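Repro:
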Amino acid sequence: MSVPDAPDAPAAPPPVAPVVPAQQAASVRVHEARRADCPWCGSARLRNRLRTGDLRRHRPGRFTVDACRDCGHTFQNPRLTAEGLAFHRRALRGAPRDTVTDAVLALRDAPRRRRATARAMLRFGEPESWLDVGTGHARFPDTAREFFPYTAFDGTDLTARVERARVLGRVEEAHIGALTDPKVRARVEARYDVVSLLHHLEHTTDPRAELHAALDALRPGGLLLIETLDPGSAFAALFGSRWLSYDQPRRLHLLPPRNLRAELESLGCTIVTTGSGSGSGSTGAGAKHRPVYVPYDLAGAAALALSHALPAPDAPWRAIPPTPFQQHARAVLLRAGAPLVAVAALADLALAPVLRHTPFANAYRIVARKPAKPPN
């Protein structure tokens, strides 16, 4: 026989329902106010480039990318708030994974590409110290050490991944936080011979402030290494929202090469890289950026098209989940379509030697030297 509770015993609190991702997204202000001007040059002459959903992770929301008619700067508008960015960037339990598209995106960080970037710096000699910004698991410093065995590599990242990289010996010092954070900025000021920003500027809320902070971390005469996406790529116009490099809503800014060069030169830097048409060693105002082709445009477009031609995946934020038949059909058709994506990936690799020197090049590299003394 059960014994009743004492009269003065407090009632048990009701169970707390778990917060699902849709509720998390609804509980925060996802977007800032829409801008009427370009965040780079201030022009009010904007045009819409695309409106799209989250094609890669299938999370809720619609996102707009605008471009400036005057300077070409391309940016998310309205931009996600800090809370919205956190929601869309972090891993969520139960969220669908598009393994085919993720595999294509991983080509950008392939060891072969990391080695090519490191080799581009050999002509400048071996630096004493190098800071890799937004380093994540520090795969690039780990690869670059093959070419610069006596260089001390440090890293910054917004997450604790950089601390794990330090434990693994990939970097010597780990700085958790944005490079523009005053605490991080104070720790790294004027300490490095090289600072690298590799596919990092497109994720930052203020790329100009990031550039200034990177230059502050350099010693006088130090080198700033930048690789970033080119919004002028012909593939961006050809594929639209299926251009994998847009990757909405996680990428906020795409900078045309001329804008980046002009900004660095206005800060007194000398551009020391050259494009294929300028000849190695050109410097000054006439120097070009170095076109870079990340071989994933055809495969990325094919993977995104395949994913969205199939029944929608199950997700915690869906009001009505897909039926077991729809889930099974998606899994079977996704596996069946994977060889088509593989063929597109082979075409990307075959065309890479040609496309990197054409308007189809989807990224570029700039190396700039910080002035030996502050500009007047």
